[in-house]
Amino acid sequence: MIRFKFDPIDAEFKIVRTEAWSLHNCILALSSDNMYLVSATTSRMFDLRIFETNFNTSDDDALRYFYVYSTWDFADMRERGLFSCIEFGSDGYFAVGFTQGHVSIFEMVGSEGSIHRRGASETPGEVLSLAWISDMRLLIGTENGIYIANLEGTVDWIGKKRLLGDREYWLHFIDETTGIYGTSNGRAHYCKVEEDRVIPKRERSTVASHFPEDAFST
User: Fold this and answer.
1) Phi and psi at residue 59, in whole multiples of 5°?
2) 153-174 pLDDT per residue, tens
3) Residues 204, 189: contact at Cβ < 8 Å?
């Protein structure tokens, strides 16, 4: 792992530390407060590690590892594919996606960093991206479309019909009613958002100057 730090004097990012990280390929996710870093292997050697960072201090010591899930902890998940993505939410929550469509939600509790599994969801197709929105709901991008899930495991497809007859991989909001979605053929399209419906648009609309905290609010 290579750690970079922005140097305001030279106005560039510089390497401050290089560390031996893992014998396997990993995916990483950093909490919004820069306090925790999660690492997950992308091989059959299931390994989910959580580190306490020192990014907010002047300490240059290595990352302080304090929790791990091993192959045995994930015995009930081994048939659900490999780790594919991680996304931090608020209040210590983070979600982990799998290649077979499974999503697990975890919460870090207390100053000791105790980890509890709080929920799980199942979607058709590989989980390619995750994004938290308000009310502890999770936007899940898969090879078969974009879904919205809650902690209770309820999953809804937010596209009521196929978008341009293709598969949607991801969705990003520009303002209250306008977004951009990407498809499996590598293209990006503008769309209009009406409640839980995503409608393709041929022309780009005027972008609002204010973006709400949650475009799915009713």
Assistant:
1) -75, 130
2) 888 877 544 444 445 556 666 7
3) no
52 by Cβ neighbours in 10 Å (0-12 / 13-18 / 19+) ranks as middle
Share the mean pLDDT of the chain: 72
* Cα distances (angstroms) measured from residue 11 to each of 14, 16, 56: 10, 15, 19
pLDDT tens-digit series, residues 44-95: 667 777 877 765 555 555 566 655 665 545 556 666 778 889 999 888 889 9
Q: What domains lie within the chain, and their CATH numbers?
A: 18-157 (2.130.10.10), 160-218 (no CATH)
Q: What is the pTM for the complete model shown?
A: 0.63
